[in-house]
Amino acid sequence: MRSTASVLHLDLDAFFAAVEQRDKPSLRGKPVIVGGTGGRGVVATASYEARTFGVGSAMSGREARARCPHAAFLSGRFHAYRETSAWVMEVLRELSPLVEPLSLDEAFVDLAAADLPDLEVSTVTAAGERLRQRVHEVTGGLTATVGIASSKFLAKVASELDKPDGMTVVPPGTELTLLRPMKVTVIPGVGPATAERLRRAGIHTIAELEAVEEDELVRLLGQAQGHGLWQLARARDPRPVLAERETKSISVEGTYDTDLNDRRVMEGLLARQARDVGARMRKNGFSGRTVTIKVRLHDFTTLNRSSTLSSPTDDGTTIARIARSLLADLDTTGGVRLLGVGVSGLADWVQEDLFGSTPEEDEAEEVRLLEPPRRTWPPGADVVHDEMGQGWVWGSGSGVVTVRFETAETPPGPVRSFRDDDPALRRLEPPAED
Fold first, then answer.
1. Band (371; pLDDT cuts 50, 70, 90)
2. Which residue of 65, 149, 349, 391 could cross-link 154, Cys pair, CB 3.0 to 4.6 Å?
3. What is the CATH topology of the domain spanning 188-232?
């Protein structure tokens, strides 16, 4: 742990939903839910307006609709999220050369490497406020919450305290005063299973965790996680901010002698694999944000589909729910030779050397929300009409597609309906990759 509050954690607020509200004026101030929009879809991000109804990430789309039926349910536009994220990361690198991106909407920044006159609390506080204002400017109005502290762990905890659009600075020497009243679940790696073990041992808060001897925690949780929690309960976290990070994933897959044709069997296998992945993540103290399935068809074509969450998870049930929703959009009628489930975006703020390493490290595939074929009309997709101009898909079905014509630079626009094969209407292609 440093002697100065010089580690900054920035978290863009309700990122996917906020980008949609920015680009769709009629949705500003209204509940927006981004994720799988089918019957078995999963919420990736909910706007704060939707969260007031109890909607959260990893919730099934069916439950989200029951809680907030008047929300706008959108399939997501990964290219827009990636572009906005790149603007933010550039702003962070203008502040310091040491920026460690965790995902599209999160990053650590080493203020000790920034061109600041000193690292006094007042100085880093002013730097954090300027940064938040700059992010607001370059993103077209998005907000970010910032935490500044003497370690990654404390900076991450601090960034959760004043959401949305806030900032918390933890002065050096006050770390334990902040942590002790908090529940143990604020510690990365303490998922439902670990929290239940600690609860049965009478440990609910970090103060109670701090009072437990290290040997007892090791007996309770194992060497890696027990030692790691003992350290973090004392605010000890020496990890540096690393500008270059290796993306890691934990995955399980199986190859089958006979092609699988029964969708229920496939779903059962994915659920079992997801539970195995979750168990391995918890064993090693990891959580992850991106769930990927791998499907090899009868003709050896290999398909990968991914979905990313706004919050990390190590829960096998959640991973299984997302994996099944990803499978639902694939055509497997010819048979499947291989199935696999993986979670990436690991150890974003967990101390790897404290909690141990993963048994398997693979490069994570690019995180993408599911994008249907171009001639379909998923809700929220960008479109353009020869006469009306640019807009987005309000809804579609029964051979009709309904579009609201507006952009980030216009007021809320008119709504029009067309035949879904109208030649004057087409999907607006995202910018080409470099």
1. very low
2. 149
3. DNA polymerase; domain 1 (1.10.150)
